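ok new one. same drill as before - structure tokens go in, u give me an amino acid for every spot. 122 of them this time. try not to just spam alanines like last time pls lmao
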């Protein structure tokens, strides 16, 4: 009887910057939007491995559901403003026109207005 010698090999693979932004931490279920989606409309994020992820908006702690609602609202405003627009004519979250339109909807839902500052990691 002969014994076969097996060798386990593992390759190390590092993620590039774009791939690491797609990685979701926190709970075992992914967040609805990417970190850049939250932060582009002023929501600051703190992702955790085992504990729940944290979100802040205008210096106040908000729930994950509220963060998702705010990003969804922002995306709807962007879609409405960019209907038929192409290329350089498209509005983005840093434009004053978007901030005014977004704030009109945000005020109706939450009674607050966004100052236009992007979110960050905390």
């Amino acid at each position: 009887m002969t014994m076969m010698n097996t060798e386990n090999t593992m390759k190390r693979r590092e993620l590039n910057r774009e791939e690491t932004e797609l990685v979701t931490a926190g709970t075992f279920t992914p967040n609805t939007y990417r970190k850049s989606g939250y932060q582009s409309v002023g929501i600051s994020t703190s992702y955790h491995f085992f504990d729940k992820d944290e979100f802040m908006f205008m210096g106040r702690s908000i729930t994950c559901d509220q963060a998702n609602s705010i990003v969804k609202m922002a995306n709807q405003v962007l879609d409405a403003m960019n209907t038929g627009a192409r290329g350089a004519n498209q509005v983005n979250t840093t434009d004053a026109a978007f901030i005014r339109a977004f704030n009109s909807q945000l005020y109706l839902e939450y009674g607050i207005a966004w100052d236009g500052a992007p979110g960050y990691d905390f």
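The first helix runs from residue 17 to 22. and btw The longest strand covers residues 43-46.
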